[in-house]
Design goal:
Elements: H1 2-7, H2 19-32, H3 34-37, H4 57-82, E1 89-92, E2 116-119, H5 156-167, H6 174-177, H7 192-195
Antiparallel strand pairs: 1-2
Organism: Haptolina ericina
InterPro entries: DUF1501 (IPR010869)
Protein name: DUF1501 domain-containing protein
């Protein structure tokens, strides 16, 4: 594998001083070697910390989002140059949400969060789930107390199901990889047809 990766030449220049860009560069190299590896499909995990912002949230968030934006743009550009963007999906996720009310200089831990999915065949520009009509404590989708804690309207399975379908998991086996899958009503589970073109 090391020899394959050493021989994988990319058309995109990633910033070697950016840990996130280096991770995307490595994934791009592995994808570049897909034919030599006879890969039917690959799954990669990239992680970036530093999102637990209790102070100076505006400046910190601006910096983090700029890093993510640049790394993702470079990766997407490379995937297009490799001719595989229609076969690639990026899903962002976090294990916890933030509340939407300020604690003077930042935000505290919340409940609901967001997830984005992008790819060459993803039906983009859509919001799934229910967006709160108000951030006040008496809103249907906000917890009481006025702290801006959003109540989730869709579980992890809601987004993971269409990705699993896209990867080829049969519906009859969905509960094997997502044990809580059957606990959600159909309207809280997206389908491959809703997410992919």
């Amino acid at each position: 594998m090391s020899d394959l990766l050493d021989g994988a030449t990319l058309s995109t220049s990633f910033n070697v001083k950016s840990k996130l860009e280096l991770m995307f560069q490595q994934v791009a190299k592995v994808i570049k070697t897909r034919n030599e590896r006879q890969a039917e499909r690959d799954v990669f995990f990239i992680s970036i910390g530093g999102w637990d912002m209790h102070n100076e949230v505006v400046q910190a968030l601006e910096t983090k989002l700029e890093q993510v934006d640049k790394a993702v743009q470079l990766f997407v550009g490379e995937m297009r140059l490799q001719g595989v963007w229609d076969s690639v999906v990026i899903q962002q996720a976090s294990e916890f949400g933030r509340n939407l009310a300020s604690n003077a200089r930042g935000t505290d831990h919340g409940w609901g969060g967001n997830v984005f999915v992008m790819g060459g065949r993803v039906n983009g520009s859509r919001i799934h789930g229910v967006y709160p009509d108000s951030m006040k404590g008496n809103s249907l989708y906000c917890m009481r107390g006025g702290q801006g804690r959003v109540i989730p309207t869709m579980g992890w399975e809601g987004v993971w199901k269409p990705l699993a379908q896209w990867l080829g998991v049969e519906d009859a086996r969905m509960s094997e990889i997502m044990p809580n899958h059957d606990r959600f009503p159909d309207e809280q589970l997206l389908t491959k047809e809703q997410v992919f073109a």
